[in-house]
Design goal:
Radius of gyration: 22 Å
Helix content: 40-55%
CATH topology of the largest domain: Glutathione S-transferase Yfyf (Class Pi), Chain A, domain 2
Shape: globular
Order of helices and strands: EEEHEEEEHHHHEHHEEHHHEHEEEE
Largest sheet: 12 strands, mixed
Strand order of the largest sheet: 6-5-4-1-2-15-14-13-3-12-11-7
Strand content: 15-25%
CATH class of the largest domain: Mainly Alpha
Number of strands: 15
Structural class: alpha+beta
Length: 364
């Protein structure tokens, strides 16, 4: 799958931009704060209708603009389609997204925030595994939203302190268990797929024989039956009523990430942690391709910083097998088979060609 062309209007710092990228590796270089990450965000928004940087879409339209739009052509072997999406600011300070959809479009994005997958709180790892599962299973994110709604209502009952609170919990327990076990099952499958690919990807990137393991960790251990989650809820009923929160379920689960049996979060070096975060993203490519029937576009924002020259070359070899890749860097990089672009002063210019992609950028 590839993006043939893209047009931006009032998107982040761009007033307008027309860009026709290469079908393989696109290397975007230039000084900071010129719009490299903003362009990646626009590419991702074209494909999915979501931003990989923020959940607050009101931040996306250019300052003082009331709306923002992205249009482009998405292609695969069977043919292509033109997609148009828009973000409109609302009077209440929020924003609303609208436009076309493309059910087979997939994107995998890596950015500085992905270091939280390895070093951050459990919520970052849950978001990561849910994002991956959402690319594998179309209904996963809708199920996650339903689970959160059930959880919020169950917690309100726990916090009510009413005399019949325990009786009120029974119907919510059944729903929490039913939807929760569905989420846990998909997360476990997703983690197993990642583990299989990590066994190949991480050594290929690092150049050394080290084993990265990722395991889905839940209070239910290896339990797969709904009755076991329900029993855990009953067992902790008094504690939950006292504390006013639900203590069992996928909202409490985590991923264990280890390098040669050692917890990377606590004992890994900064370089190891960053490389594992990148390896996790690249490990998504094959499972997502098989699930969606089309290769995802890779958006790699400053993915090579803090990596030595040998590892950088290993990364280039790994992404050489992908289809369309966008890689940003503040400096020029020695990449084979790459279309090199400079992002500067409201234009995206191809090396050796001064009139490939032009636009206008908002002045600070």
């Amino acid at each position: 799958m590839q993006i043939g062309w893209i047009q931006l209007v009032e998107f982040r710092n761009y007033r307008t931009l027309e860009f026709s990228p290469s079908s393989h590796l696109n290397l975007l270089t230039g000084p900071n704060a010129q719009g490299k990450t903003n362009l990646l965000e626009a590419l991702g928004f074209l494909l999915t209708g979501r931003s990989f940087r923020t959940s607050r879409l009101s931040e996306v339209p250019r300052w003082e603009a009331t709306s923002s739009s992205v249009a482009g052509e998405i292609c695969r072997a069977e043919g292509g389609r033109t997609v148009r999406r828009m973000i409109r600011k609302l009077d209440n300070g929020g924003a609303q997204a609208s436009g076309d959809t493309c059910e087979w479009a997939r994107v995998i994005a890596f950015g500085w925030q992905d270091l939280d997958i390895v070093t951050g709180a459990p919520g970052a790892r849950r978001n990561f595994i849910d994002g991956f599962a959402g690319r594998l299973y179309p209904g996963h994110l809708a199920t996650l939203l339903r689970y959160r709604q059930i959880l919020a209502r169950r917690n309100r009952v726990l916090q009510s302190r009413e005399l019949d609170a325990e009786a009120q919990l029974e119907p919510w327990d059944e729903q929490l268990v039913s939807v929760g076990m569905e989420l846990i099952g998909r997360r476990r499958k997703a983690a197993a797929m990642l583990q299989t690919e990590l066994g190949r990807v991480f050594p290929a990137l690092s150049g050394v024989r080290q084993k990265v393991e990722i395991r889905y960790r839940t209070a239910l251990a290896e339990a797969t039956e709904a009755a076991e989650m329900l029993a855990a809820l009953v067992r902790l009923r008094r504690v939950e009523l006292r504390r006013g929160v639900s203590l069992v379920g996928p909202h409490r689960d985590d991923l264990a990430i280890e390098l040669d049996g050692i917890d990377v979060r606590s004992f890994g070096s900064r370089g190891q942690q960053r490389l594992i975060a990148l390896a996790l993203r690249l490990a998504e490519v094959l499972p997502v391709t098989e699930a969606a029937g089309s290769t995802p576009v890779l958006l790699l924002d400053d993915a090579l910083s803090e990596l030595d020259a040998r590892v950088r070359q290993n990364v280039f070899r790994e992404i050489d097998g992908a289809e369309q890749v966008f890689l940003t860097s503040p400096e020029a990089l020695p990449a084979r088979r790459a279309a090199c672009w400079t992002v500067r002063a409201g234009a995206v210019l191809r090396e050796g060609d001064a009139d490939v992609a032009r636009g206008s950028v908002a002045q600070a």
